[in-house]
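Bug #77: duplicate submission created two jobs. Keeping one. Sequence:
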Amino acid sequence: MKLSEAIRVRTREAGWSDELVERLNESALSDRQVLNLLALDMGEERTSGFLKLVEDNPDAPFGRLSLRFARPTTELGIRAVPGEHGLGMQEINIKTYGEVPDVWPYENDTPLGSRPTPGSYAPGSYSVFNKSEVWCDGVDELYDRAIRERWAASTDIDWAGLEAQPDAIERAICQICTTLGQHGLAEQKVISKWEERIAYGFHDVKIFLATHVYESGRKFEVLRKRAYANGGGMMQQGLGTLYRAWFGSLKSTEMILAMDVVYKTYEVVMLEALAELAPLETDRQIFSKILQDSQRHLEFGLGHLQYYMQHHRDAGEFVNHFLTRAEAALSDELHHSRGEWEALAVVFASGLEKTEVGLERLRKLREDQLRRYLQTLDSLAIDRVAKVNPGLFAIARDANSVLATAQSTSS
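Kept job's structure:
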């Protein structure tokens, strides 16, 4: 096939010899194939080698290769430079490959930075295409931190350091492990359900949520192992009304706020207390490891809430509805999950001999949880003091009376 003058100009600019150009001119290769060979920048010797294969094997299928991948419509010449911790997500989110549109335009598995292949663009199961519904600035760094801070329940916990302790305390620890482990299982299910709905273009969020799923499963793993490791076992299941706000979320933002803002604020404060007050060093180590993960989840939740408030048209009204439902579910769970209350009081009192001390510390914990929650929202210019669920206020003011109510209700 005769080469066009434009292609001949390109070959001269590439430094190809007249001999090679004439061979190409007499070959079966099309202008487009030659243009793609030029884009591959293989040099004259390698191009000549490919041309010889085509000449010697005129019926071979590789002679009909279009090589169109050599000239994509995306940005080329990108070189990512490793940072302090290696080649992380922040290092590769550069130039156009780090620009996430406000609305993702593709309904299939097209990754950010690429384009759909013509003729094979079939839609997938995605339903979340608006960036404001999932995004969190800095989520790529949160993902990298999750990878750097990963730990294994089997080998990173000093299981040999477990010591015998009074039966009441051991059973209380096992009850706390049961309750928190149950929450971890629910977290896994809910996040996994939303993973498949989020469009591929928001891959930073998707892979961070994947670490969230893994860490929630690891939380259940380590707590279940702890329950069986020192003569205890799994205890009473929690009420589970907390999960109504998670499973019943109609928007991804509602799920994130319910789990990673409302609940995680309360969980972080409780884990901080357990990491300090649990009698055994192994238990303090376990709760510290889980705390590290939960703090990262809370950072994601707050980061998303901030982005949502700044970029979603109806954020002011919607956020109040989301928080109201999540607070109601948490309040109901805290009021009626009697096992968690009693177990925390026993651990905080170091036994049954000074239950009044444990109950006062429990009341202080509930107060600290509510205060942290309100202060955290206030830092994002969200004033919930007048709107927060009254049940959460009641628990913070007088945990003893609420516990007595729960006991009489369950009797």
